[in-house]
Amino acid sequence: MRVITAEPTGLCFGVRRAITTLEEELKKFSRVYALGSPIHNPQEIERLSEMGLVVVDSPRDVPHGAISFVRAHGVSPETLRILSERSSRMVDGTCPFVKTAQERAKTLSQEGYTVIILGDATHPEVKGIMGYVSGEAHVLASAEDISGEFVGKRCGLLSQTTQRVETFSSLVSAFVSVSPEIKVYNTICRATLERQQSVCRLAEEADGIIVLGGRNSANTRKLAEIAFSSGVPALWIEHAGELDGRWPENKGTIGIAAGGSTPDWLIKELIQKLKTM
Fold first, then answer.
1. DSSP per-residue letters across 109-132
2. Separation of alpha carbons 141 and 1, rounded Å
3. CA-CA distance, 38 to 216, in Å (whole number)?
4. Is 85 a catalytic residue?
5. What is the 8-class DSSP label of residue 153?
6. pLDDT band of 138, cuts 50, 70, 90
7. Strand pairing of 154-159 and 181-184?
8. Per the residue annotation, which of 25, 44, 125, 238 is the catalytic one?
9. Which of these, 237, 203, 200, lies nearest to 220 by C-alpha position?
10. Close Cβ partners of 192 (under 8 Å, ≥ 6 residues apart)
11. Would you put residue 119 in left (φ > 0), alpha (ψ -120 to 50) or beta?
12. Tens of pLDDT along 37-95?
């Protein structure tokens, strides 16, 4: 059995930057309070918690005078204000690509466009982006969600950074016949696109694809969707311990793809387990 990995794979630039920054803070302070899980990977959160990370659900859960951390997904301006008031030190780990999406949404809103965001309305990144919009805004999951309320409106379109390019293209195309004027910003992260394309390349060479990453990770879910629709047997697991030893049977080449929130040590662990089979 041959094991090949997608290229690129593992932590994306934004997540790696945020985790590196968080680790530096944890070395200096005994406790750092992160608003929401700083990485959508339970195994990595367990490791960081042992270093002193405390995950909270609300900015008001951060004790006065504590060290706070904003994860790569970003937050709204109002949340930033509350955190800065409560914290003795606030560390902003927002991914630069997410910051770009936030600024694009703000600009479109200021220019009078109805802001349309392709994404998951419940995802923290999307909630943060929405906080930069002062006017009308909507979150759509696909072109199928377009309704008659948008007819005749000037619409500005952007995307959650981890969405599929094909889905965003379909949404833009659909709005051409709905809105008299559209302005489009492609805010899909380049690293996300590269990882999605890498899964397609794996499908051409592998007899089976394993997608490795947290089940609450949006970008990993997209990779899994591509793998499942490729026609090649595919499996989505969070860690090597979930791999059934019977699954690799009769597969000469196994391809591994990992989400942008999957640390290198989990990838190496999976490769080692496959090699021992």
1. HHTTPEEEEES-TTSHHHHHHHTT
2. 39
3. 12
4. no
5. -
6. very high
7. parallel
8. 125
9. 237
10. 12, 161, 162, 163, 219, 222, 260
11. left
12. 998 888 899 999 999 999 999 999 999 999 999 999 999 999 999 999 999 999 999 99
